[in-house]
Design brief:
By secondary structure, the protein is an alpha/beta fold. The chain has 4 domains: about 80 residues, Conserved hypothetical protein from pyrococcus furiosus pfu- 392566-001, ParB domain, CATH 3.90.1530; about 60 residues, Orthogonal Bundle (Arc Repressor Mutant, subunit A), CATH 1.10.10; about 80 residues, no CATH class; about 60 residues. Helix content is about 65%, strand content about 5%. A 5-stranded mixed beta sheet has the order 1-5-3-4-2. Strand 3 and strand 4 form a beta hairpin. Helix 1 packs across helix 2, helix 3 runs antiparallel to helix 4 and helix 10 crosses helix 12.
Length: about 300
């Protein structure tokens, strides 16, 4: 570990790291009270210059506190090797999935590494690499900028907007307009889910209101209309039951996606029982998709 001046550190990969204002405020308070505890992770270039990979929140906090000398841990001088090492040691703790995706995309496009080559260096499956490349490739510049800047919540994208638009086949320009309209508004996850539903399924009137920034009015209307779809008065008892079951299915699909997107237990008993249930789910997916697909396509 060495100590260097902030001006020697390049922020080249800042746009690859997700911003979180709340976490940054907490970190600023901690550094103010106890100082910096962990060094910045960098690649050491020639002539005393460094490229920062991990520690952007710390760097911004230090800059705000007018601290100009910082501890740095170097991952070597090779940029490609440094990125690979960062992903390997992160173990889903310092890097979120979308951040991994950005760096994997860099290895693939800028450094020309193949999917199998990346998988071998990271000791992961090719499917792991392909999934992360796909996440970045399907994001437009507008969506990526708003998510990584912290203006649009990453969880709302991963677990609400992304699955919803894939099923409904929403065009990218529509997704861009929606994300641009609601970003930076500090909306709760529940309100964001309502607006996603309203924009893509609520008709042209609601879509126009969202694009014009009338989010309070739109949310009021959506809360009145969608408190529970199963309570619609023009539905029969059987229809209400089916709608209610679909609501429950949608809710728990999202919860399971979230569980497996986060760190999950790795105990033997857990894995054994989870695998049994997953096998049953796999056996049910094709019949489910066949039945609902036939209805949806009509």
């Amino acid at each position: 570990m060495v100590e260097v001046e902030l001006r020697q550190i390049s922020r080249k990969y800042e746009s690859y790291r997700l911003k979180n204002e709340y976490a940054e405020r907490q970190l600023l308070s901690s550094i103010t009270e106890t100082g910096i505890r962990e060094p910045l992770i960098c690649i050491a270039k020639s002539k005393g210059q460094y490229i920062l990979l991990d520690g952007y929140k710390r760097l911004r906090c230090l800059s705000r506190l007018n601290i100009h000398i910082v501890p740095v841990h170097s991952l070597g001088s090779d940029e490609q090797d440094g990125i690979i090492e960062l992903i390997r040691v992160s173990n889903s703790k310092s890097l979120q999935t979308l951040e991994e995706s950005g760096f994997v995309d860099e290895l693939h496009k800028r450094f020309g590494m193949t999917v199998s080559g990346i998988a071998e260096r990271l000791d992961v499956s090719p499917a792991w690499v392909s999934l992360r490349l796909g996440l970045i490739e399907e994001m437009s510049d507008t969506v990526r900028m708003n998510i990584f800047s912290g203006r649009f919540p990453v969880r709302s994208y991963m677990y609400s907007l992304k699955p919803f638009t894939r099923v409904k086949g929403a065009e990218k320009h529509m997704v861009d307009r929606f994300v641009s309209s609601v970003s930076g508004k500090r909306l709760s996850s529940r309100d964001m889910d309502r607006l996603i539903y309203g924009y893509f399924r609520g008709g042209e009137k609601l879509k126009k209101q969202i694009e014009e920034g009338n989010l309070g009015w739109t949310l009021k209307i959506l809360k009145e209309k969608t408190a529970s779809l199963s309570q619609e008065i023009d539905l029969s008892a059987d229809e209400r039951r089916i709608i209610s079951d679909l609501e429950i299915l949608q809710k728990y699909i999202r919860k399971v996606i979230q569980h497996f997107g986060d760190s999950i237990p790795s105990g033997t008993a857990f894995r054994k029982n989870a695998s049994l249930l997953i096998r049953g789910i796999y056996d049910s997916i094709n019949p489910l998709m066949k039945q609902i697909g036939e209805f949806y396509d009509k």
